[in-house]
Specification:
The protein is α/β, with parallel strands linked by helices and 499 residues long. It has two domains: 10-380, LCP protein (Aminopeptidase), CATH 3.40.630.190; 399-473, Alpha-Beta Plaits (2-Layer Sandwich), CATH 3.30.70. The protein is built from 14 helices and 22 strands. The strands form seven sheets. Strands 1-14-9-2-3-4-15 form a seven-stranded mixed β-sheet, sandwiched between helices. A hairpin with a 4-residue loop joins strand 11 (244-246) and strand 12 (251-253). Keywords: Membrane, Transmembrane, Transmembrane helix. The chain crosses the membrane at residues 70-90.
């Protein structure tokens, strides 16, 4: 299936097609890209009387882009903290930063601040203003954030933890207020949609309300800033187990160790299908490793003892970020002074534990049993809980073990499913407006196996379906069966062949 979450400049734009997350009550964004449910999980409210919020007005010339914009933000914070010799630069660099007053949009019902730790919300932006014009496309509008990280700095300023929140997490978004005073009603949907509908303060409120962690500041950074920062560092070393060619990410890398800059660095952290298993969670892990390398280089002795290098780095970062107006020069100076002893080795990267969202295998939900101890540890600044051992995974049934009853499917659908070795019967039935996979008692794993062949289709239990059986009910619009990709002798998996 095509995915445009790693598209290069306009001439490199690739095809994209993903479905909306089901059972979402997110408000409808009116001036987002035509097919951008994959980005924001946007859905009409179920209550027709509820006013539909409108997205923030966006200037023309914006296009979706998933870059690792937060890399620069974390590196900037750490290098500012570690480089006590650069405090004198703050006043000069402060003029580069765009500030936004957000306190009035956060409301009064917020988590209590339990200690002197500092929690900074880091957001990516796909703005196409200024230097980002190279990625302009006429068919896409609206600004989005696809990367959300909470940077927790301990009360003693001796360690930090960066917590990544997957963009396609299904969460309850609270009621939010836009800068113009317009209200956005609460809804259930993808995490990254909060930014699209009501800006950074809405994402701030969502993270606070779902984690019960008090957030002190936010930093927003665009993807062009990421490229500037990596270039200011002289590039960052990576290692890829095999040659990578991904035109959607504008990426062409040789195998082995190499130093990447600019577009190559951005493509490396954005590519979804060129490396790994194609999942967003795998990409987050790769981004975290890259981030660790950036922080390590940004806080190296050669950087911190060279005022010219430090200034170039900080100048590149501050030209690319926006913050809340409380993160001012005084706050930065105080933070830098207290963090002077922090090193790259005391910065950790973790991801919120997740599990498959049962109503859509293309989405995730937080594993509350594992996520709550993590959130509690961040809130109280305790030691993070040890990772839970991975539960044994039940083996997915083979297609030849799955009985599929196709209702209203075309002959081609039946043929394609049989080509994938499913045991298929077919019949006509009442017309349905949505294609669904329905399963009887004891057939949930069989339904999941069918979902692999028919991605993006909702999977639901149905007592009318015979036990041990799965039904594929096809709407008039039809459904596509994805052909099986055969295994090839000698194939390489990224996580099996490290450099």
């Amino acid at each position: 299936m095509a995915d445009n979450d790693a598209d290069g400049p306009a001439k490199e734009t690739g095809p994209r097609a993903e479905t909306d997350p089901p059972e979402s009550t997110e408000p409808k964004a009116e001036s987002t890209e035509p097919d951008d449910a994959e980005e924001t999980g946007a859905h009409e409210p179920e209550n027709a009387d509820e006013a539909k919020p409108e997205p923030e007005p966006a200037p023309p010339g914006r296009k979706r882009r998933r870059g690792l914009r937060w890399v620069a933000a974390i590196a900037a914070i750490v290098v500012l903290a570690a480089g006590g010799t650069v405090v004198f630069l703050y006043e000069r660099l402060q003029g580069n930063i765009h500030k936004e007053h957000v306190e009035d949009q956060l409301g009064a019902n917020r988590p209590a601040k339990l200690n002197k730790s500092m929690n900074i919300l880091l957001l990516g932006s796909d703005s196409r203003d200024g230097a980002n014009k190279a990625y302009w496309s006429p068919d896409i509008s609206g600004e989005r954030s696809d990367t959300t990280i909470l940077l927790h700095i301990s009360p003693n300023r001796d360690h930090a933890v960066a917590v990544s929140f997957p963009r396609d997490s299904m969460v309850q978004v609270p009621g939010c207020t836009k800068k113009n005073g317009q209200k956005v009603a609460p809804y259930f949907g993808m995490l990254n949609s909060a930014f699209a509908y009501a800006g950074a303060p809405c994402t701030w409120k969502t993270i606070e309300s779902t984690t019960d962690i008090h957030i002190d500041h936010y930093v927003k950074i665009d993807f062009t800033g990421f490229k500037r920062v990596v270039d200011a560092l002289g590039g960052v070393e990576i290692c890829v187990p095999h040659a990578v060619y991904d035109p959607r990410a504008n990426l062409n890398l040789k195998a082995g160790r190499q130093v990447v800059k600019g577009n190559d660095a951005l493509g490396y952290v954005r590519t979804r299908y060129g490396l790994g298993d194609g999942s967003d969670l795998e990409r987050i892990q790769r981004q975290q490793k890259f981030m660790a390398s950036v922080v390590n280089k940004a806080t190296s002795t050669s950087m911190l003892t060279d005022p010219a290098k430090t200034y170039r780095f900080l100048n590149a970062v501050t030209k690319s970020i926006a913050t809340d107006d409380k993160l001012n020069v005084s706050a930065m100076r105080k933070l830098a002074t207290s963090l002077r002893g922090m090193t790259a080795g005391t910065v950790r990267f973790v991801t919120v534990p997740t599990q498959v969202y049962p109503r859509d295998p293309n989405r995730v939900q937080w594993n509350t049993a594992e996520a709550k101890p993590l959130f509690d540890a961040i809130r109280k600044d305790d030691a993070l809980p040890a990772p839970a051992p991975a539960p044994p995974q039940a083996e997915q049934p083979k297609p030849q073990e799955v009985k599929v009853h196709v209702v209203n499917g075309s002959k081609q659908v039946v043929k394609d499913l049989r080509a994938r070795h499913f045991r298929v019967t077919a019949a006509k039935g009442p017309v349905q407006q949505e294609t669904k996979i329905l399963y009887g008692t004891g057939a949930e794993r069989q339904a999941d196996a069918l979902g692999v062949a028919v991605p993006g289709v909702r999977i639901l239990p149905d007592p009318t379906v015979p036990p041990g059986t799965v039904s594929l009910v096809v709407a008039p619009a039809g459904v596509q069966v994805i052909p099986e990709i055969p295994k090839v002798n000698g194939e390489i998996k990224a996580d099996q062949v490290p450099c």
